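Quick question, first post here. What does this chain look like in 3D?
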Amino acid sequence: MKLQLTNVSYEGPKIAHLSQLEGLPEESRELLVLVNGFIQYAGGLHVRGVGEVPDWHSLHYVWDGPLALHARYPALTPEDVPFGQDALGDQFLLREDRVHRLLGETGDLVALNVTLYEFLAAAQADPIGYLSLEPLAQLYQEGGRLEPGQLLSATPPFCTEEAKAGVSLRAVPALERIAFLADFSRQISGAG
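> Answer (accepted):
Ran it through. Tokens below.
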């Protein structure tokens, strides 16, 4: 690995079969062989691993499984690899070996113009700024916390006019949050 990971609070289980890495970009395979996914920064960054258990940690669950993101967001294709997410459920994906950020609430896709390792290095250099972890810091200041398998839910959603007056944050199951965001995005875009 080209990067020494810090502030890791969770590591995924060992890979049962290397065949689970098939179809993944080279950098992603290289990383997952060393550590099968992880959570950093008190829940601020979750890099998914391969395998079925736990389902909230499974890359394949959101790539080509029951919660396939490309089937829920028009901006995504089946080739996009949703390798991770931030504390609010914005998704990080690899498209042609470059990292993109899918804004969960709106479905907008933003090119970050970095490789996977460059992304991890930038996140490590400035986790709060690069990953926009201010809401997570707010949760911890209010005495809350995220456990593995949880994401932050913001009420009202950040993309709404009402959010300018402030939001309420709480921890919710990660897969529930991802499904909610995809449905919300579809509703506000008028796509469904």
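The chain is about 30% helix and 20% strand.
Residues 8-189 form one domain.
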